[in-house]
Design a protein that fits this description.
The chain contains no helices and 23 strands. By secondary structure, it is an all-beta fold. The radius of gyration is 19 Å and the shape is elongated.
Length: 253
């Protein structure tokens, strides 16, 4: 099970699939639990999208050819095929009586589209992740708690959870949760700090896949060539990828 948020692409970019207020709609921005789903793996490569927060226990349903929230998984009406469209983008196809219909945000509304037509059925999947240091600092986690960037021993709460947001040109941004919500991990001015929102390349990173679920984060803009490092038990920007000091185990939450 993995927590995800689903951002609409195309004309509805910046809006999120929401179950807040016990309905299925498009919310401007990720405002909280109402825009977070638990992606549950089901048999035969299927998935279900479970709500959290006030709607906990309900699932996104396409049963009876409409979008609504069902109590639990009652059958194929709450199951979807999640198609990987590359670059972290996905599309959701219905099963059962609605086979061939897709979860759509086209025309700024939530509905079921006949087939995959394009960006109107495309969603940017934003993962909730924790980043564990490897090497000598194993067991320590990248933290934004207390409104600073540091290494915390273990996952203590929201302070060690980030939303990995997809940005254009295969870049990512790391958004905070909890008390630091609205802030982003920044390397601007050649330092590590928390910036209010994404102001530019200072809050964008290249996430390099190092295999086995491990990643490294390279800066952009004026800090290009520097990597997010935990070496020597501190948070800093290292000149290039030197080894385990710049390696992080990405853990889905």
């Amino acid at each position: 099970m993995t927590k995800i948020a689903l951002e609409a692409l195309g004309g509805e970019s910046g809006k999120y699939l929401s179950h807040a207020k016990n309905e299925v709609w498009l919310q401007t921005g990720n405002q909280g639990d109402g825009e977070v789903f638990i992606k549950e793996n089901r048999p035969n490569g299927r998935v279900a999208l479970a709500c959290i927060g006030a709607e906990k226990g309900k699932y996104l349903s396409h049963a009876f050819a409409k979008l609504w929230l069902q109590d639990g998984v009652q059958g194929e009406g709450e199951e979807w095929i999640c198609h990987d469209k590359g670059n972290g983008n996905v599309a959701f196809e219905c099963l059962g009586a609605e086979t061939g219909l897709y979860l759509s945000h086209a025309l700024n509304k939530m509905w079921l589209q006949n087939g995959y037509q394009g960006e109107g059925e495309l969603w940017a999947k934003q993962e909730f992740i924790a980043l564990e240091a490897l090497g000598a600092e194993i067991g320590a986690y990248l933290s934004h708690a207390l409104d600073k960037v540091w290494l915390q021993h273990g996952i203590q709460g929201d302070g060690e959870i980030f939303i990995k947001e997809l940005r254009p040109n295969n870049r990512v941004a790391l958004a905070c949760l909890g008390k630091e919500k609205g802030k982003y991990l920044s390397h601007a001015f050649a330092k590590l700090w928390l910036q209010d929102g994404v102001q530019g390349e200072g809050e964008e990173w290249i996430c390099h896949d190092k295999g086995n679920g491990n990643v490294a984060f390279e800066c952009l803009g004026a800090e290009i060539g520097k990597d997010l490092s935990h070496a020597f038990d501190k948070m800093w920007l290292q000149n290039g990828y030197q080894g385990e000091g710049e390696l992080w185990a990405k853990q889905e939450q």
